[in-house]
Each structure stands twice: as C-alpha cells, then as structure tokens.
Amino acid sequence: MSENTDALVPREEEPDVHFEPVIKLTEQVETKTLEEDEEVLFKMRAKLFRFDSESTEWKERGTGDVRLLSHKETKKVRLVMRRDKTLKVCANHVITSDMKLQPNIGSDRSWVWKVAADYTETPATSETLAIRLANAENANQFKAAFEDARDNNAQLSGGAAPSEAQVKGAEVEEKDKKDEALSKETESAADPKED
Description:
Blueprint lengths: L37 E15 L4 E15 L5 E7 L5 E6 L7 E2 L6 E9 L6 E8 L3 H21 L7 H27 L5
Antiparallel strand pairs: 1-2, 1-7, 2-3, 3-4, 5-6, 6-7
C-alpha cells in the first residue's frame, strides 16, 4: 500500500487580505410601499393566476400573501398581493361592487373574478384573476372577507348596486312620466284655441 504523503506536506498559508470601503454607507434609505396609510383587514398565503386570452390558458402571477387593505381616511378597501422574496406586486386593485367571486371549476379552494383595472403594471389592465388557497376553509374565509370589502366599498360609493326590482321600478316610473307628457301634448293639440 502506498502511504498518503500529502498530509505531511506543509500547506501554504492563505493571505489575510482586508479592504476598507471607499464610501461608508451610514444613512438608511426609507422605502415607501404606499401601504403605510392602510390597515390590514385580511392576510393569507395564496397563489394567484391570470387568464391569458391570447393563449387561452391560466398563467401564474405569483405566490405570496394576499391582503385586503383599508385606507385609514377614505375607508376604501383594495386587494394587494406581493410575491415572496422579491416583494414585487402581482395584484393591486380596488374591490368594486360589480366584482363577484365565482368558484373555479373542479376546485373547492379557488375563486375566479374579473377586474376592470388592475394596477400591477402601468397602464392599468382589465384582467380575469384566479386565486388558489391552501384548503376549502381558507377559501371560504377569503370569500367572506372579499364580500365584506365589496359591500363596504359599495356603501362608501353611495350605496349598493341597484337590485333588479329597483331598476324595473325606475323604468316603470320613467314610462309613466313619458305617457303623462304625451297625453298632455295630445290634449293641447285637440283643444281649439280661441282668438
């Protein structure tokens, strides 16, 4: 057997090199996320997708914490989601009264909704988004918080969206006014005026 003589050979010492920085950074730069004036109403880990109409498939937007934030002054609620690690925004939109969560086909833990203006990128774009949560219980909690936020924003913007009965009532009332105006016109045309 051959002996290992490499262990007996003295190693070269590594140089101890130390460099002083040319510029010392002592100032902390404060970064603003524009979320400082908002209160977190809901926060949960999720995965977000967007529907790409050109390729007709769902594309992943990111994984991270989805949050519903209420502005401290205006009380409007918006949905914000940032990706893990990079903290890049992957969803940013106000929850409006016309947004309705629909269950995603074949899953009890995901929801789909349409957004008229998502401000993730500039300019704002219309998107169809889907969110997948860890389990059905978390999905139901998200739905409850989302719908509460939608109702809150509807009240702040001057009431909830009108119901079908209210719309039909307004149409009937408008038709009655038109009929009344028409009957007045025909009466005045039928009466001969004396000179």
